[in-house]
Amino acid sequence: GMQWVCTTSRNRRGVSAAIVIKKLLVHVLCCMRHCMVHKVWMSHVDVVCSIAWALHWSPRSLSHTRMDGQCGVTGVTPPSWVAMTAMVAALALFSAACDGAPSTTSVLRRGDDGVVVGGSGTITTDLTGTTANRATATATIHRSTEQVVDTFTTYNASVWEYADQSMGTTDGCKVWYLKNHSRVGAPLSLNEGPGLQMLMSATPCRSNTAACNGAKMAADHLTAKASTLEGVYTLRMRAPYQVGSGGTYCNPGVYAYFTAGYVNSDGKWNEMNFGFHPDRDMNGTTVSAEHHDDTGGYHEKSVPIGFNYRMAFATFTITLKDGKIEWGVGQAGKAPQVLQTVNAVLTEPMTTRIILRTNFRDGDPGFMDDHVFEISHFSFTPHTA
């Protein structure tokens, strides 16, 4: 809800304790009002910056912006003790309104293909990504309590981090991620309507290898900003295919994943995904169901689906519930089919990934023709006991 920019450019010495206390109380009161409006309480970053301001760092070095306008305290002379007494009384009277309100957090984590991504700690049900809606439709990171839906009509920065200017290196591959290789609101094939097109291309790598940091192909990689756990993860999509082939062909050097959840930190690796591997998918008729739970090794199984997922849009689902993972798929006009169910214990909140990358299993595939990965919508519906 708040954004802070603070520096230590000028630290004025000799500030009295009374001024410090007054200014701290002003900021706490301001943050309390923000909580009353937006139901989001101060984070540790807010506290640090409040102390910085109270210690009289230059007002020009501290910027405090709010979704509903300026707080109006930066650079303002602290009020009298009479006014401060009234403020403290108001704080004591109304602070209970924010008891239990979630704190937003900021995280830095390394993706499953070596891409470092950041997160804001919130998820939203707002599809427009507007400031006003984001302020009221948030949930705490690590709590799978809110439904998330994205139809990819806009770049929804509250839901996804689009990789940009970074290298993917999973399984020894090399692919340069660029945000401009993801197009939202794009007209999808087969009259599917607007959605997301992720492009795998030798542009700009072929003409300027330095632009891709030495990689021969560029693509993109999406990472959800919120961590989730039990629930149903759904992606309606058409698997990657070579542009101009009508979906009949995909270069074996192009891999894609719908990774419903991934985390690998503090010795715990949890993951569950669909893998789309043209080098071993029987002409697009088998999909790879993969997972890693709290213990043991990595599990991968090729499962027949009864149609070519490069020739049609289909709805792929991964459900984590009560110690089980279920992979499923559905097509328009047909009953959804369960592809595989396994017993698995995953206890670490994960982030969803949508990945388009190169495959180096049989060596560097080199420069390839353009390929496209088309996505109509994504949703996460939490499991509630």
Describe the structure.
The chain is mainly beta. Helices cover 13% and strands 38% of the residues. The strands form six sheets. Strands 7, 11, 12, 15, 20, 21, 22 and 24 form an eight-stranded antiparallel beta sheet that branches. A seven-stranded antiparallel beta sheet has the order 8-14-23-16-17-18-19, with no helix packed on it. The chain has a three-stranded mixed beta sheet with strand order 9-10-13, with no helix packed on it. Helix 1 (17-38) runs antiparallel to helix 2 and helix 1 (17-38) packs parallel to helix 3. Mean pLDDT is 76; it is low at 1-15, 33-50, 52-78 and 94-143.
Which short descriptors sum up this protein?
globular, 24 strands, 385 residues, 7-stranded antiparallel β-sheet, 8-stranded antiparallel β-sheet
Write a brief structural summary:
The protein has 385 residues and is mainly β. Helix content is 13%, strand content 38%.
Uncertain residue ranges: 1-15, 33-50, 52-78, 94-143
Indicate the multimeric state.
single chain
- Number of helices in the DSSP assignment: 4
Give the distance, in angstroms, between the N- and C-terminal Cα atoms.
30 Å
Q: Averaging pLDDT over every residue, what do you get?
A: 76
Radius of gyration: 24 Å
Helix/strand structural class: mainly beta
Q: Approximately how much beta-strand content do the residues carry?
A: 35-45%
